[in-house]
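Ticket #4471: structure output looks truncated?

Reporter: J.K.
Steps to reproduce: submitted the chain below (363 residues) through the standard prediction queue, then opened the result file.
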Amino acid sequence: MPVDLGDWQSYNEVYATTNNPWDFGRSPGGSSGGAAAALAAGFVPLELGSDIGGSLRAPAHFCGVFSHKPSIDLVPLRGAGPPQTPAIPGRVDFAVAGPMARSATDLALALAVLAGPDELSDGIGYKLALPPPRHDRLGDFRVLAIGEHPLCPTSATVSAALDGLADRLAKLGCTVLRTSAKMPDLALTTRNYVELLSAFFNTDLAPDDRLRVEAAAQALSPDDLSIAAARLRGLTMTHAAWIKMGRVRSGLRARWQALFQDFDVVLCPPMPTVAFPHDHSSPMGARELDIDGKKVPYYNQLAWAGIATSNGLPATTVPIAHTDSGLPIGVQIIGDYLDDNTTIAFAGLFEREFGGFSPPPSL
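Returned output as attached by the reporter:
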């Protein structure tokens, strides 16, 4: 895993670099890249991970396995901290813990064990009763497929895989739409998410870094609505601004949940690209991602994580295709709040119809 769980790569000075089992020169994802690589390589039957910026979804997408980012607070976080820290009940905004596996069935089994209120806090007075899947036949699902993001390009290979999936689902009888009048503002959702997520990391800035970030934020144009600008604004956010952004988030969350009155699941890429080559250069913020020949800021990879994370929604990631060179491509299946059984069931029905995990050919 990466230091502080803070990268879409998995390397550190203690355990060195984890390679992608499909291509040793590429990242397995992060922060749960080691877990995904071990699953894909057949070392383990099941894994656990956390997710605040795609740390379950990116590794599953990069390594061709399954993962489930649960609805917020569905899985207690007690015991998920660093070694030698007390295992006490608590919540971390945005953050969840969830399972990774090689099938949707194993995800469902794992979630059934993990989910439920912590017996030392909410479990004193609450019990879990998740709703059943909305449908038991794939053709009955109402699907919204989103393949383009206004703040970050998506690679042609990832977009094509999503398009192909949408076409296959439509042929099976699913109601598949590519747009909706009820679709919330995706750009605003992402900027709001990135600002609030960056504010979460504000406390840990070193004094010199804080001065540098504050100077950069003050130099921003009010018209700069990029993800990079949102990160800087979040890192320097006041408490009053944080409260205002929280109000915006609440309004957006209500609109996203209203969308699920018309759709059962929303499909979108887990990440803008497939697994990318190792890049351990420092500082991380200076890295760039190559998307079809266009250089994009490294942190723009947060773009597709925000829908589920900011709104506390479940997101199941499953493998759906491979590139011409054999790299896995996944899709993110997002559902309504606490509709975790629906997203996993959809993944399982898809797996039964089209296939799921396949092992890397070199192993």
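Triage note (M.O.): checked the attachment and the full token line is present. The chain has a mean pLDDT of 95.
Status: closed, working as intended.
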